[in-house]
Design brief:
two-stranded antiparallel ribbon; 11% strand
Length: 377
């Protein structure tokens, strides 16, 4: 771009006026939407014997006209990663890319994606079974207008979802990870998780919320709850600082000091909330104190093993995406349909955790080359 006139004297600038430099601006934009059509011609060749042989179709090309891996990837990306309903997925593909899809095409694309993910499901379940620390959670969903449960097993690099009619051990067994898991589980206080893994850690976000509720209800009478909150947050800060410094563990003196602070608060809570009269129901504060005593080792496990996080936020964040799908669609018509959606969601979530583009791994999937999470070194 050349200026037309001088900004000083306002004279017209000659075309051969000396250029002494430039400034620049960049505009990022999208091209006009269009489909790229690739035509494959399978030659027919006559042999000297008179027989005519036609070349085979390339891999993945089966019909006179069809949509390719990119269009299939777009439909599944919208349905599963962005939680867009089928009709809007079809409309969006036409508006944005000139691909006039039907709702049936979108459904079929999702089914095709799930059918190619058997190697992925085997790999991710096996890796989760071998993980040192893994997070587990469950949440209610609607399938065929009835309550079902989606179970999640995950780490910072892996995600696995499975829907089941039961919330407890039957659903956990069907998911395939917990019955064979030998590491440390990070869970909420749901009793069905007891007995799995070699060690368990409780989500301290739940503990802090319960302690805050007890203190908020009676700030004067339940001061111990605030002291317990302070003890846990101080311990979490110490563990976080140790990890940031590259340390493998806290010292025994550090652990003893932090545990003593927590134990003192719990003892005060025990004396503040004595045993109720016979047949009387325990107050929530007393129930919480009993849980802190009963599950002390699991609550404080993050101090003894710095690989164990303070909360179960990883599982809660991963399972939250299924709740978004529930808000959009209201549920699934069949359990098989729910598990197909969840299988593809597991694939995309795991790929995203490895820094991969979801459209890229979906395109690879439909091109016959599904991505697999790497095995540990």
């Amino acid at each position: 771009h050349r200026p037309a006139a001088c900004g000083g004297c306002e004279n017209v600038l000659a075309q051969d006026a000396e250029a002494v430099g430039f400034s620049w601006s960049q505009v990022f934009d999208l091209p006009e939407p269009r489909l790229i059509v690739t035509e494959h011609r399978m030659l027919k060749v006559r042999c000297h014997c008179g027989h005519i042989t036609r070349a085979d179709h390339p891999h993945g090309v089966k019909a006179p006209t069809q949509y390719g891996p990119g269009v299939h990837a777009l439909a599944v990306y919208q349905l599963v990663h962005q939680h867009v309903p089928c009709l809007r997925t079809a409309t969006g593909a036409a508006d944005l890319h000139g691909a006039h899809l039907s709702e049936g095409f979108a459904h079929t694309a999702l089914d095709r994606a799930a059918s190619h993910l058997a190697p992925f499901s085997e790999r991710v379940v096996a890796l989760l079974q071998l993980a040192d620390v893994a997070h587990f959670d469950e949440s209610g969903i609607r399938v065929a207008s009835s309550l079902h449960w989606v179970h999640v097993a995950c780490t910072t690099h892996l995600t696995w979802y499975k829907a089941h009619a039961k919330r407890g051990k039957a659903g956990m067994a069907d998911a395939g990870v917990l019955p064979y898991f030998t590491g440390t589980t990070v869970t909420d206080a749901w009793s069905s998780y007891l007995g799995y893994g070699t060690a368990g850690a409780l989500c301290n976000a739940h503990i802090l919320r319960d302690l805050d509720g007890v203190h908020h209800t009676d700030p004067t009478g339940q001061q111990w709850a605030k002291a317990a909150i302070d003890a846990l947050t101080t311990a979490n800060d110490a563990a976080h600082a140790a990890r940031e410094a590259g340390r493998e563990a806290l010292t025994s003196d550090e652990i003893t000091s932090l545990e003593t602070q927590f134990d003192h608060a719990v003892r005060v809570g025990r004396s503040t909330n004595p045993d109720p009269p016979p047949k009387a129901k325990k107050s929530f504060a007393r129930q919480l104190v009993d849980r802190l005593i009963r599950r002390r080792e699991d609550i404080l496990r993050f101090l003894h093993d710095l690989r164990v996080p303070f909360t179960n936020n990883q599982a809660e964040q991963d399972i939250r995406m299924t709740k978004i799908q529930m808000k959009v669609s209201g549920g699934w018509r069949t359990l098989d349909g729910a598990n197909r959606w969840l299988l593809v969601r597991s694939y995309l979530s795991t790929a995203r955790k490895h820094g991969l583009n979801p459209m890229t791994v979906l395109r690879d999937l439909f091109a016959g080359n599904p991505w697999l999470p790497p095995a540990p070194a």
